[in-house]
Design brief:
This protein has 427 residues and is mostly beta strands. The protein has 5 helices and 26 strands. The longest helix has 14 residues.
């Protein structure tokens, strides 16, 4: 019996691949039900601006970019992006029913012959054998709704990393299924919707963590393995390469939006892979699988792998996870401006006015750098800015305290400034 492919993300069209394009997606609403994106120019909160947040909605974005609700139009020939948390219980009978070689401790075991199987060090089989004991399946339930996703053991204290959208809005009842089939209840340590990261606590000190790599060393063409529980099929491994780095991806709806400077991969990623690790050929985690793309016009119920998956870089994961474990919350860098929603050209325009209030936060990074109302931000940290989403992703990829260069267009002339990023005020 073939189970339907579960998904909790409806599609939204991604922009054409222009200078620093930003791929857009939507996040699931509370309860695990699909939350469709608002029309372009609709009410969308912007994180990372003034103390009240980026209260202005994004403009249409770069030329050719069009957001749409499923079944109500399509984009200009690129792909939409979907989240990849599965739906609890759809194919539970299939979970763990793999065939052929399986894990036996840290080695390989052939079920057919009952003998051990040797594989060369560094082979995909050997990498899988070493990593899979640390990969988990996550089942979050509550209020009649639920979702399944993936995760991995982060440290010897028993903390588990997953995506925020796996556990968001489905209650506090979270079960972690270990690779050997045993289960343990977990508590949420902290979540960061803006980076789509969540940390769980299993209170188990006997779990084996996966080593983390520095994603800043990842290059296009690197071989990778994606691990998790797509469609509820636990301990699934797929292979591919890194097909792009620093891919700006925005996922979310009007209530919850994530900004990812993503690693793109062609390794097969499907609903249920959310939160699982993307590892390199040294067995270290370079990213956390978070979203996939589907052809324009595809319905959310038919979402599946087409070779365009996106992972949160490990450098961001480590920074955010450590903050969540240490304090229960994380910090976001800001520049302290409000953007003009009516502006449709390239770049991101600072509002000329804000209903009598200053669109530039007094004492904020932009204010100290001399940014003026009406300036159009065209370059940030050496990269072209195609639109507001692209700017937010670029800011979020930095750290509080970083000093960055920025170019604005003022009265038709370029103006170069530098600024030191500050932390967004705690809500």
């Amino acid at each position: 019996m073939t189970a339907p492919i579960p998904t909790t993300y409806p599609p939204a069209t991604a922009p054409l691949p222009q200078a620093a394009p930003t791929t857009q997606a939507t996040l699931p609403s509370p309860g695990g039900h699909a939350a469709y994106p608002p029309a372009v120019g609709g009410p969308t909160p912007w994180a990372g601006g003034s103390p009240a947040g980026w209260s202005t909605p994004p403009p249409a974005g770069p030329a050719g970019a069009t957001a749409y609700a499923p079944g109500r139009g399509r984009g200009p020939g690129w792909a939409s992006v979907l989240g990849i948390a599965g739906v609890t219980g759809l194919i539970a009978a299939l979970a763990g029913a793999g065939l052929g070689a399986s894990l036996a401790g840290d080695g390989l075991f052939d079920r057919g012959t009952g003998t051990s199987v040797e594989r060369p060090a560094g082979s995909f089989a050997a990498l899988a054998a070493a990593a899979l004991p640390s990969v988990v399946t996550i089942r979050a339930t509550g209020s009649g709704s639920g979702a399944t996703g993936s995760g991995f053991v982060y440290d010897t204290a028993g903390h588990v990393i997953t995506n925020n959208h796996v556990v968001e809005g489905v209650g506090e009842e979270i079960t972690v299924v270990l690779n050997d089939g045993s289960t343990v209840e977990a508590e949420i340590v902290g979540t960061d919707p803006a980076y789509d990261i969540a940390v769980l606590d299993t209170k188990r000190a006997d779990l084996k963590p996966l080593p983390m790599a520095d994603s800043k060393g990842v290059v296009v063409g690197d071989e990778v393995l994606a691990m998790g529980a797509p469609l509820g099929l636990e301990s699934t491994v797929t292979s591919g390469i890194v097909s792009a780095v620093d891919r700006p991806v925005v996922a979310g709806d009007s209530t919850s939006r994530s900004y990812i400077n993503a690693i793109q991969t062609d390794a097969a990623i499907n609903p249920g892979n959310s939160g699982g690790p993307l590892i390199d050929t040294t067995g270290k985690v370079i990213g956390v699988n978070s979203a996939i793309a589907t052809p324009p016009g595809s319905s959310s119920g038919n979402a599946g792998n087409i070779g365009l998956g996106f992972a949160i870089p490990s450098a961001q994961v480590v920074k955010t996870a450590d903050q969540l474990i240490r304090t229960g919350s994380s910090e976001h860098p800001i520049i302290g401006v409000l953007l003009d929603e009516s502006y449709s050209g390239p770049g991101a325009k600072v509002k000329a006015d804000n209903g009598g209030d200053d669109p530039i936060t007094a004492g904020g990074p932009a204010d100290k750098a001399g940014i003026q109302p009406g300036d159009v931000i065209v370059r940030f940290d050496g990269h072209e800015v195609s639109g507001p989403d692209d700017l937010i992703v670029a800011i979020r990829a930095k750290s509080v305290g970083d000093t960055v260069a920025m170019t604005v267009r003022r009265d038709g002339q370029p103006v170069d400034v530098t600024m030191t990023l500050q932390a967004a005020p705690k809500k």
